[in-house]
Known about the structure:
By secondary structure, the chain is an alpha+beta fold.
Amino acid sequence: MLVKTERRTSGFAACSAGGVHLKNAIFLVVLCGGALLSGCGSSSSVSGGSGPPALIKVLSNRADLISGGDALVEVVLPAAAAASGVAMTLNGQDVTSEFGLRANGRYMGVVTGLADGSNTLTAQVPGASDSSVTLINHPQGGPVFFGPQLQPWTCQQGAEDAQCNQAPIYTYEYQPTNPLSTGLQPYDPSKPAGDVAKTTTDQGVTVPFIVRVETGYQDRNQYVILTLFQPGQDWQPWAPQQQWNHKLLITHGGGCGQTYGVTAAPLDDYAGTLSEITQYLPSVVLPESYVVALGRGFAVMSTALDNNGQDCNIALQAESLIMAKEHLIEEYGELRYTIGTGCSGGSLTQQWVANAYPGVYQGLLPTCSFPDTWTSTTQVGDYELLQTYFNDRSKWGSGIAWLPGQFAPVYGDASPLDAFTSVLGFFDAILPTYDCIDISKSQLYNAQTNPGGTRCGIPDFNINIFGPRLPAVWGPQEQALGHGFAGVAFDNVGVQYGLAALQQGQIGPAQFLDLNQKIGGWTIDILPTAQRFSADEPALANAYRSGSINETTYLNQVAIIDGIGFNPGIAHDTYRTFAIRGRLDRAHGSHANQVIWGGPIPLIGDIKYTVDGLIAIDRWLAAVEQDQSASTLAQKIVQDKPSDITDRCSDGFGTQLSATLCPASVVPVYGTPRTVAGDAITTDSNKCQLKPLDRSDNYGTKPFTDAQWTQMQALFPDGVCDFSQAAVDQQPTIPWMTYQDATGAVIYGGTPLPPAPANSGSGWASPTFDEFSSGQP
């Protein structure tokens, strides 16, 4: 791939270079992405003969989101047109040599040398009208739609420029014939190993199990692509080696955090929970589904920015995946469909990107599931506040005593352990003073000594999406700097902590009142306050509309097999899988595109689910792929699901016990402090609507005294949460958002990209999936 010197100006701006002058940059973005201006993305007739024009198809991505200086293009010639007479020009320069009639019978080429911004590719066919398409190219180092990139940023050693560009390197690995060997081993084509195993792909092709690993850099971070590869044999995108099945598996990383520099792309199916799993099963060799996928003929891909533990930002994750998929198609060929796999943060990336950028995936294999970051942040924030109260007896009022067994009913769990591990593992990531990687102490924000320093919490890592706080709520540091910090997209106003525990007689009215009086909140610097805290605008609305709070608006467009096991108190609650199910039911009246596989193995349910799930979802998508009916994609996902792919419960070692959900004795499902306060299992009310206090509401069998009710009125002067109503600012996800305008300046909160330019992006998936491939809802 061509590596170019980077600049931060978006390619959208170049559409004005052809004589169109628009002052409104956002309007220009809309025009350049659609077919409203000739030469802004769609194939069009220009001049030449009187016959019908050729059709130019940009296969590797949307024509307006190209990156890295190249694109895979097909020219569909008119009947009887001779390929030998076709002339191709790029910005007036002859590029015919990059095209040709290929062995697959199609006239194709990888056009290279694209300038940043607008490029015109023209096909001149004898006897036919000329055709042209505008390719809007973005820098190899990004951004494409993320907006102004986060700074400061540390590149890897060997980087060629400040955008971390570096030519890709290729290494080889192989699967030994020794059945006791664990995973792939290094392979040197100049000194071939003598113990290379054979593999037969799902297309019946038998080859030596040799894998090529491509490691490169895009969007200022690393990507990797693995494929079965036969050294010494040619591979072109129109003529790939026969063992590739044109399917893609994407692996992800776990956690939630932020890194201001280059990291390694993860190839870990269990996404950071591997150590916990082997702690319980030290004698079990866990399956590596990416090795199984490679052996079946899949390509396997990962990007460092799809690792939620290093990049807890939905738009940046999606951008990196879109760029990497484009590159893969340009180098290796068109895709049939894409499957995601991963646990914890890896499940999170799959599910919120699939919803907000439909078409990136066609199937998902989440385990230890999370719907998104920001509804889980509400839970972890509640845990922190509750722990602060429970662990400091000096906060308890006179005569108030809490027994250890009374904490868990308020947490909504079987014990306080999960609250402890959740806070220990996740809470620090929201702090602006969080010790994030590649930010030195001198660069880090400090309210007194360095108020203009880098705020390392995940809200400010998401400032392009959430937007800065409004001036009316600025603190002294923001006032001095003249701009707001990123807003926080949740609060605890009106939340009646411990309500269900009070109703069930597990705690008394005096405890309930003392807890809710002392619970407190935080400042924008996440410092404790006696007062509760309120969500910021526009951050709250933007969290919903961006998909950062996953409303599953478009999640019915993918097949989902979710593997779950019980949570032994390590911050991976099983309720989150059912939160996705509940949100699907609310949004679509059905969760038929999601099946849940449970079992007794902690977090993942069954040691074979990752592999068995891959095989099952592959069958599912292959069935959908063949459906040529007029049904919508969502309908096809459901109606073509094989009858044996249902909810199931297993023994943990690969044997199915039932075609139903596991009983609570195997996979218990607990709640959260908000479900105890009255929220539904969907748990996406990040700021509840309020209703007036009503003494006749259910407050348990022991009524409040008059004095206690007066205290309630003082505690909740504006009312209490009414979880029967939609949350404040709750709204469907807007798909395919961009956070930059025509000049590359930020659009805080984003604006939707226009539909994909005609005849572009079709290389992402088979035609059945085109409805939501590459941004064409």
